[in-house]
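4.2 Preliminary Data

To establish feasibility before requesting continued support, the project team ran the inverse folding procedure on a target of 451 residues. The structure was first converted into the token representation described in Section 3, and no sequence information of any kind was made available to the design step. The complete token record follows.
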């Protein structure tokens, strides 16, 4: 399919469905681990370290996977710019599913000793490699198929897979706390959500195999213009842009991982903590807030087509800052309603700073190296932002005895993201095809005329 023969409405709908289903499955797998880390992994895999250190190690295992996202991004970026977007989407989906299912059958420390946490971390690393490569492909499939004036809305389709994944992961875990309460959840209940991944991966694989390749990549391939070393070319010409784009995402990601990284779930449900809510109500509150995140993410994609990516982002970071400042006072209310209100308010800001990201990133980089640019910026941003956010938050509370330090940390990351997005020129609606490489190569970073 060339760019002259635009995708049909039916094909675009199929791409939207495929990206939503695929990213939902990917992030379900990723978030099930993060939630389980906050709820049970400290006890099951790191208990000999002692209660406090076990919690830090469990959250640290969540963060370790982020260090390997760049590896997934580098490999996927090379393959995606050389051989196409679709093949990468299928490969990453299968890798994530296999790693998740294996965690579901992994013996605990009590059964096999030190090998248990070692194997757990290795499987989490595989999840990180998959996540590092998956997002860029999903983003480009949706944005490069989209009508120019609706690119933000179409680009929001892989983005809503994240709150959908969180909703599904939290919902299944909450259900299992009811089906297998107390010791039964520790014994076997937590494993069911991981094993469910096998079914979800089969569905996601079937859906993703059914979509056409991106028309931008098809055009590049037809002209034999694929880049031999896209990653090297990216860093040779666009390093400042990669850094700024990564900081934009870091500002969102650090705050988002208060829930997606399992920190709030652990903090609010800790029997020895200041809140002391049950696991079930906490998980249901997170599940409900994910619906708010989903709606605001979708709305933000739509708004960015009308207001521009930069304006939508800037407004979103302001709302996110307000959500950060009110989060812990509401969590400390100690009721289901106050927890839900705090998480929901935060989720509005998270959605406004996440919905436009796919279109923003796609419009920043030239077509021939776009997969590499999008994936690597995203991976670096996730390390700077969410990788160790739950671990940092836990350490700050242990050191200071107060969540005020966590609020300062999250507010600082939000302001960093706002500053980064203000450094970018708005390129809403720029042509994405290979005929416009020269226009795309002009740096969108203020102060840099050309890459």
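Position-by-position output of the design step:
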């Amino acid at each position: 399919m060339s760019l002259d023969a635009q995708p049909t409405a039916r094909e675009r709908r199929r791409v939207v469905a495929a990206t939503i289903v695929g990213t939902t499955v990917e992030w379900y797998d990723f978030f099930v681990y993060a939630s389980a880390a906050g709820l049970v992994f400290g006890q099951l895999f790191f208990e000999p370290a002692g209660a406090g250190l076990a919690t830090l190690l469990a959250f640290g295992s969540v963060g370790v996977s982020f260090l390997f996202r760049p590896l997934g991004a580098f490999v996927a970026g090379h393959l995606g710019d050389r051989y196409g977007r679709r093949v990468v989407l299928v490969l990453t989906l299968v890798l994530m599913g296999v790693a998740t299912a294996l965690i579901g059958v992994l013996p605990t420390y009590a059964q096999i000793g030190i090998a248990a946490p070692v194997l757990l971390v290795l499987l989490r690393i595989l999840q990180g490699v998959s996540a590092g490569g998956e997002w860029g492909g999903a983003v480009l499939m949706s944005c490069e198929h989209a009508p120019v004036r609706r690119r933000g809305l179409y680009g929001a389709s892989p983005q809503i897979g994240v709150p959908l994944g969180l909703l599904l992961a939290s919902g299944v875990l909450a259900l299992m706390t009811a089906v297998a309460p107390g010791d039964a959840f520790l014994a076997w209940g937590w494993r069911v959500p991981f094993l469910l991944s096998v079914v979800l991966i089969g569905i996601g694989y079937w859906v993703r195999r059914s979509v056409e390749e991106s028309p931008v990549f098809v055009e590049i391939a037809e002209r034999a213009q694929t880049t031999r070393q896209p990653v090297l070319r990216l860093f040779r010409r666009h390093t400042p842009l990669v850094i700024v784009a990564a900081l934009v995402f870091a500002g969102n990601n650090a705050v988002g991982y208060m829930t997606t990284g399992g920190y709030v779930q652990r903090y609010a449900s800790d029997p020895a903590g200041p809140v002391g809510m049950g696991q079930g109500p906490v998980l249901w509150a997170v599940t409900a807030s994910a619906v708010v995140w989903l709606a605001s993410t979708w709305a933000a994609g739509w708004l960015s087509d009308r207001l521009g990516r930069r304006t939508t982002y800037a407004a979103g970071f302001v709302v996110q800052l307000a959500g950060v400042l009110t989060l812990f006072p509401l969590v400390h209310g100690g009721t289901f309603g106050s927890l839900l209100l705090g998480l929901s308010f935060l989720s509005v800001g998270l959605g406004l700073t996440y919905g436009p990201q796919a279109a923003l990133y796609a419009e920043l980089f030239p077509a021939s190296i776009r997969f590499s640019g999008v994936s690597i910026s995203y991976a670096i941003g996730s390390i700077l932002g969410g990788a160790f956010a739950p671990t940092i938050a836990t350490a700050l509370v242990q050191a200071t005895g107060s969540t005020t330090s966590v609020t300062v940390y999250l507010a600082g990351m939000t302001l960093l993201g706002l500053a980064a997005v203000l450094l970018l020129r708005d390129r809403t609606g720029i042509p994405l095809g290979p005929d416009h490489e020269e226009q795309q190569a002009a740096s969108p970073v203020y102060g840099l005329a050309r890459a």
